[in-house]
Specification:
Blueprint lengths: L54 E2 L5 E4 L4 E6 L2 H4 L7 H9 L9 E7 L11 E8 L5 E2 L5 E4 L7 E4 L5 E6 L2 E9 L8 E6 L12 E6 L5 E6 L4 E5 L5 E5 L6 E6 L5 E6 L4 E5 L4 E6 L5 E10 L5 E9 L3 E8 L5 E8 L3 E6 L5 E6 L4 E5 L5 E5 L7 E6 L5 E6 L3 E6 L4 E2 L2 E2 L1 H18 L1 H5 L4
Antiparallel strand pairs: 1-27, 2-30, 3-4, 4-5, 5-6, 5-7, 8-9, 9-10, 10-11, 12-13, 13-14, 14-15, 16-17, 17-18, 18-19, 20-21, 21-22, 22-23, 24-25, 25-26, 26-27, 28-29, 29-30, 31-32
Amino acid sequence: SSGQPPTGPLTGHRTRAFSASLLPASPTCRQPVTSLRRVFPSGDRPRRPPGPMASGVGDGGQSSTYGFPIYSAAWLPLAHIIKPDAPAADDDADAASSSTPPPPRAQMVVLGGGGGEGRSGVPNKLVVAAVEGDAAPTLSTEPVLVVEAKEKLPYRMAVHPRGDGIVVSFPNGCRFYQWESKEGKKPHKLDLKFEEEALVELKDVGSQLAVSFSGEGSTLATGGEDGHLRVFKWPAMESVLSEADTKTSIKDLCFSSDEKFLAVNRSSGPCRVWNLKSSEIAANLPREAGEIFSFCKFSYKTDGSHILFITAMQGNDYGKIISWNTTSWTRIGSKKITREGISAFAVSPDGAHLAIGTSEGSIIILDSKNMQTLVTVKKAHLGIVTALAFSQDSKTLLSTSIDSTARVTSVGSIKSNGTSVWPMILAIILAILVYYCMQHKDILAMLPR
């Protein structure tokens, strides 16, 4: 394939183990994405290789292979997408008299990627897959929906939190896909439709390396490889903020949960925080010597205040996470996490956990309060981890890779109803000590008093 590799956070690190040559070329496609059809290919069915075991608390999970390098992924807000069937009168009576608990709510993810432009034979597509199981979730082996993108590589995406659709970033700009749900709860009634007249403001603007909706979906922000930051009201697409910077590309951007702030990381320079109420700069968060910023994510603490996390590489040595106070915009602290390049980053919706993916295919889940490692899944993928996303209930972590695999890792057992696992461990140790004392009363009786 022709062109240059994308230069987002995936290729911005200078680490020994990180090679931009692993990424496919960023294609320049002349044909629009006009073919949208549901496909259930028999010969291209995802398969599950054995998953590696996780160290720490949590489930190692299993991977499913989808036949194309995956660059973007997100959970679907099914409650806002799928229209429920109208219940019949008999069904209402049966439901009222039945003591059987309702089945668990279905969960689905959308994956985007491909081989780019050229005759590699690797397709470009969006795939919707269902998550099966509750205690030990896995991705389904057969897609719910496949959307072919012809020669255009879906590199980044943003799923609207209220079910409007998906904004997908291609090499030459962004396109909007709208959900179509027929009456009914079943996943096979879900479909996507390309809206050709939508997002004309983002047509032919070049590759957008970062795309994000605000928490309530009222604002859309995109960050270009050419350094252009664009922020719009959604769905009116009225410009809120526009900043062009041809000297740097945008690596990542994120909204605060109250939609007041937008943090933007570029390929060089500080992390810039914008006040979206005034469209003015709230802060420029400086790097320290040797730091290279990559990802940024807002979260909140139990007292309701916000905190900003930024991942950084310290030269070629190690990756770390830096926390910032969002009132004084000063550093709270930083923690060395890994000697591998940080290639993906996510914060759970409940603010309890952080997750990073590495250039070596590993996944690390941390406690957001003290940044202590809770789970490490070594070699969760055979290639670079390209995307991470927590489910809406914060119990499951989705990860993807250029090795064509996606996996879900359960984090629900790490913390349940706000209770840490450490008291449980201490209780077990105490029980062992009591048992030992009971079995060795004669020895204890000989001890001086």
